[in-house]
Amino acid sequence: MTRSAPHSLRAESLTLGYDGRVVIDGLDLEIPDGRITSIVGPNASGKSTLLRGLARLIRPESGRVTLDGRDIRSYGARDFARRVAVLPQQPVSPDGVLVAELVARGRHPHRGWFGGRSSDDDRIVAEVLEATGTAELAGRAVSELSGGQRQRVWIAMALAQRADIVLLDEPTSFLDASHQLELLDLLTDSNRDHGTTVVMVLHELNLAARYADHLVVLDGGRIAAAGAPGDVMTAETVGGAFGLECVVTTDPVAGSPLVVPIGRFHRGEF
User: Fold this and answer.
1) Measuring CA to CA, how many Å separate 15 from each of 28, 61, 178, 200, 264?
2) Which member of 3, 77, 110, 146 has the greatest number of CB atoms within 10 A?
């Protein structure tokens, strides 16, 4: 597969909300091209709302999101989908759809007017089924799968889209520890091998710090800190955004920041 084309994805004075309630307030953000960005923050900080805004799933109250200098709403649906793949937090599959059929839907933006599947489409679907460990599930209905299996199938569909930018909202939800690492390794493969720009909302701070090149910490709908994990993931930042007393040390495996919560029963030891 060819390398992903370079793109500029930006939020400019972006304000997002629901029913008159502001969630993201006047935010400016540039997503580093060809890198992995993790968005973290406490509950209700606006993480998923920001991702939905970047994915044009919700309309800004003010400001805008641009892709290559154009407002994302100026793109046609298929044109945007060729560039940006989106996996929302709780995707819903059609009744009775089989795993292979769902994953193949990721190829729709690349098909011609008559919508026929090509041998290239079939090859890509087979590749992502194998890569996500879902090939043996291809003939099963999505509704029959466990939460973790369904999540891997949705990831396979997003990767089958072969977009240059992939936006994922809590992609590790429902996955056990080993499958979380497998998924994040898979996204890293796509980034390193093909230059895919990956933007993901994560809850687990240490996984976010380990896998991200660029870390964005949200607090109250604003950016509390952004930059390289080693610069951003400090005890001060974690304490300020999450209200969590902690020690930040070095991950002995990855060399990334490692957040160690203290808790009130062990506070006297530090």
Assistant:
1) 10, 5, 37, 20, 37
2) 110
pLDDT tens, position by position, 58-83: 999 999 999 999 999 999 999 999 99
Alpha helices in 195-250 (DSSP H): 205-211, 229-232, 235-242
Which regions of the chain does DSSP assign to beta strands (E)? Answer: 9-18, 21-31, 36-40, 62-67, 70-71, 84-87, 165-169, 197-201, 214-219, 222-227, 246-250, 257-261
Environment class of residue 187 by beta-carbon count within 10 Å: exposed (0-12), middle (13-18) or buried (19+)? buried
For the domain covering 9-269, report its CATH number.
Answer: 3.40.50.300
Q: For the segment 79-137, what is each residue's pLDDT rounded down to a tens digit?
A: 999 999 999 987 888 888 999 999 999 998 876 545 566 778 899 999 999 988 899 99
Length of the chain: 270
What tokens appear for 30 in the block?
Answer: 């540039």
